[in-house]
Amino acid sequence: MSNPPEILLSINEVNKSFTNSTPAINVISGLSLQVREGDFISIVGPSGCGKSTLLHLIAGFDRDYSGEMTFCGEKIINPSTRRGILFQSPQLFPWLKVKDNIAFGLKLQHLPANQIEMETQTYLERVGMTDFQDFYPDQLSGGMQQRIALARALVMKPKLLLMDEPFSSLDYQTRLEMHQLTLKLWMEYKPSILFVTHDIEEALLLSDKIFILSERPASLVREIAVPFQRPRELSLIKTLPFNQLKAEILDLLFVLKE
Amino acid sequence: MNKPTSIKIDAFGLILPAIVLTIWFVSSYLLGVPDYILPAPGKIAAVLLDFVTGNSNLSFYSGQFLIHSVASFGRVIEGFLLALLFGLPLGLVTGRFILAKRIFDPLVHLIRMVPGIGWLPIAMVWFGVGHATTVFLIALAAFFPIYINSALGVSQIPEKLIQAARVLGAKGWALFFHVILPASAPSILSGMRLALGISWAYVVLGELTGVSLGLGAVMMNARMLGDTSMIIICMISIAFWGRISDRVLVAIIRRLHPVKEVSRNE
User: Fold this and answer.
1) Sequence-separated (6 or more) residues with CB below 8 Å from residue A90
2) How many domains does chain B have?
3) Each residue's pLDDT tens digit in chain A (258 positions)?
4) Domain ranges of chain A
5) CATH number attached to the domain at A7-82+159-257
6) Smallest Cβ distance to A91: which of B160, B174, B182?
7) ipTM for the whole predicted complex goes beyond 0.95
8) Best residue of B1, B157, B161, B168 to probe chain A, by most A CBs closer than 10 Å
């Protein structure tokens, strides 16, 4: 009998408010959740409910919160290379070529040059951008830039990848491609993923579990297990169980909005 | 990808200069405008050549182009470097830290309200007539564009870009050198170029007040001697050196930091 995977991230009764406005705005209130190793979890909730703020806290950008938040058993106080992040916009370094963007974090770790080169080439290949390695980011399309951002995050071998609506500004076709790529890389490297989205289909297609957050101040309302087998085909979105689950989640979000 | 800077000339851009030149020729050679108002193009060319080479002893300043240029150039570099020394670090810190901005910004903008020329008399009181006053005026005037643009460049870096870098392990000086500095480089560069242009303006101002060497000094003396061609020749020389120094600055920065965006600011 195999044990369940280790708990990677544990959030316990976390509260967060923005105190620089009067009155202070409570963004997160009494939120608790857990992420285990290898989990692919989507977070959905009404817009403006504090999903991005939650990812910020987990990333370690902001230590002004109360409650307990541990990653690999350690309290989160600073950003760490073990927790990668992907934003809605790629946030590549415009002054660096594609390959140097990917190598950025490795160079900061002062790894041997040939190892950096090898890793960079590996990940360039994984995201299908080998031919564009000498380009500058702004010479590439939004989808290509997001591929590079994905490679730049994964090359650090993070245990947890935070994805903050990473594909929502891409066109539909490109978004579907990115879904496939994300799934492929996830299967290969198995980082845990926390995927914030407002697209329920996206959440159902990609993740094992969906966390539904309440209206602000956010707390965890429901944990929904996504039962569909992997690998998942796009045709899944035409099936009845898929649409039933989607309708259920939509209902839940509507109720929350009221 | 290092292609030599090719000089492209747009024919449309030549139309107006050609007209101006024609008017100059016509007024000098056909309408007989006197030399003390506007010297003829041929005379300017001859005196300019003599100013540079010293072959024909046409003016009091025959062959002195280089020493005066060197004197002016030296002051520009001294003042500009002083401005850079103070403006860049202060601007970077102010752009990054709100507390620094709250401390420095009000004073800087208060000082900036006094136009550079307004500092001339007090500078003469403090530093006397001549070199030190000139350098002070240049440093003061060139400080502001460097300070303001550096601060602006840093403050405009998207917070998410910095967060992305922090997650990749950049912090402290590494964050500064590998992210903040290159991300704000285009803005810093345009501040430096503005400052260099201003430096050439203020070197003239400072030198007008009475130094023996320098293009501004020659200009002022020539005016008193009624040598209009020399005045115009100095104007041309200053424009020439201003342009050269700008190209050199851009080249240096490109070498230090081969950012594509540098070219976009041109």
Assistant:
1) A137, A142, A145, A146, A148, A149
2) 1
3) 467 788 999 999 999 998 887 788 889 999 999 999 999 999 998 887 888 999 999 999 998 999 999 999 999 999 999 999 999 999 999 999 999 999 999 999 999 999 999 999 999 999 999 999 999 999 999 999 999 999 999 999 999 999 999 999 999 999 999 999 999 999 998 999 999 998 999 999 999 999 999 888 888 989 999 999 988 888 898 999 999 999 999 998 888 766
4) 7-82+159-257, 91-157
5) 3.40.50.300
6) B160
7) no
8) B168
